[in-house]
Amino acid sequence: MKNRLVVVGTQWGDEGKGKITDYFAQQADVVVRYQGGNNAGHTIEFGGQRYALQSIPSGIFNPHIKNVMANGMVVNPVSVVSELETLESRGVKDYKLFISDRAAVVMPYHSVLDGAAESLKGGKQIGTTKKGIGPAYSDKYDRIGIRMGDLLDGDYFASRLRDALEIKNRELAMYGCEPMSFDTIYAQYMELGRRLGKYICDTSVLINEEIEKGSRVLFEGAQGVMLCIDHGTYPYVTSSSPTASSVPQNTGIAPRYVDNVIGVCKAYTTRVGEGPFPTELEGEIAHNIRERGHEYGTVTGRPRRVGWLDAVVLNHTRRVSGIDYLALMLFDVLSGLDTVKICVAYELDGRRIETMPATIPQFERCKPIYVEMPGWKEDISGIRSFDELPEAAKNYVRKIEELTRIKVAVLSVGPDRTQTVLLHDVF
């Protein structure tokens, strides 16, 4: 029995991880968010309702699931309180939430510094959400960050905040920004600590205890492997690692406890923000896919860039993140196209390559080499088994498995939980 499952985005994020996490969470005892912050959203739909989550784990809708925000996250307490209030206003009041006392805190100066730094980059902006995630991670590794557990000790928090503001106010001045008040931040965050204090604990102990009991534990990340700080399209990446490899460090468990990894990918490719995108489409096909797939950012509302599926990217993420199975999302969006394409390799300076270059100039020069396949006209949003698919759609799935050497375990043919076809049992 595989009791620990990691849900990983295999592209540039926005692949539909929220739905897959929610789907498998129905079988889980614990759902753990292991990195990122409120810069990445998950959209979940069930019972005719649509919920947009930013920091809260996807199991929050089930009162029996323990939802963990682990130490690898950067937590914005203002955002968490707001998110909980929104959920409670919509009737989600019975839940179990645990926040790591070791998780870094996103402070008010982080978002200001994030926006100021982006504005100075001119035409070379990274495309951050300006929510302070990068600066919060920078402070964590610079050892001047504040952690969630600090908010429970007023004297210690005051000391840490004073030390941080000595540095941060100088940085703000360098960008021409107003200094921030110790008293204002201290009062606000002590109140936030009081409101969230009942959730703050050593989540590593909790997760390990659940593992020892034989509980089913689901780990969910934010963004996708192509936005990994180490293995993504650097510098157009996030400030943490969404790979399954980062789960032990980011949650406080041993590597041997990661049983199974399911990679979530769209039946095509999207990306938000700047950076190279070899299979990017323009024109009518891109517009149709964007509108049919509602390809706009959950957090920012930004229109997503759209392209054909890229098997080079999938093989890269398989290698660096150990993908065992794929969940193929928004498969129904491709219905109605005369032909569909999959990128199988790149042409770089006149030679064929099947791996991703490390540098942006090389990746920008990569031209996609496609295999072209017949499309299908049928509406597949109501199918509930692989056998019900049109033959052309079946062939598309088989070609993905052939090119990536990964079995497709899940097909999603619509946003609702019920529009999910399970091909292999992974959890």
TrEMBL record:
Family listed: Belongs to the adenylosuccinate synthetase family.
Ligand binding (IMP): 14-17, 39-42, 129, 143, 223, 238, 302
Positions with a binding annotation for Mg(2+): 14, 41
Catalytic residues as annotated in Swiss-Prot or TrEMBL: 14, 42, 140
CC per GO annotation: cytoplasm
Residues forming coiled coils: none
Function as written in the Swiss-Prot or TrEMBL entry: Plays an important role in the de novo pathway of purine nucleotide biosynthesis. Catalyzes the first committed step in the biosynthesis of AMP from IMP.
Residues the record lists as binding substrate: 298-304
Binding site for GTP: 13-19, 41-43, 304, 330-332, 412-414
Catalytic activity reported: IMP + L-aspartate + GTP = N(6)-(1,2-dicarboxyethyl)-AMP + GDP + phosphate + 2 H(+)
GO molecular function: adenylosuccinate synthase activity; GTP binding; magnesium ion binding
Enzyme Commission number(s) from the entry: 6.3.4.4
Entry's localization field: Cytoplasm
Organism listed in the record: Candidatus Tidjanibacter faecipullorum
Keywords noted in UniProt: Cytoplasm, GTP-binding, Ligase, Magnesium, Metal-binding, Nucleotide-binding, Purine biosynthesis
Listed name of the protein: Adenylosuccinate synthetase
Stored InterPro entries: Adenylosuccin_syn_GTP-bd, Adenylosuccin_syn_Lys_AS, Adenylosuccinate_synth_dom1, Adenylosuccinate_synth_dom2, Adenylosuccinate_synth_dom3, Adenylosuccinate_synthetase, P-loop_NTPase
Listed CDD domains: AdSS
Cofactor(s) named in the record: Mg(2+)
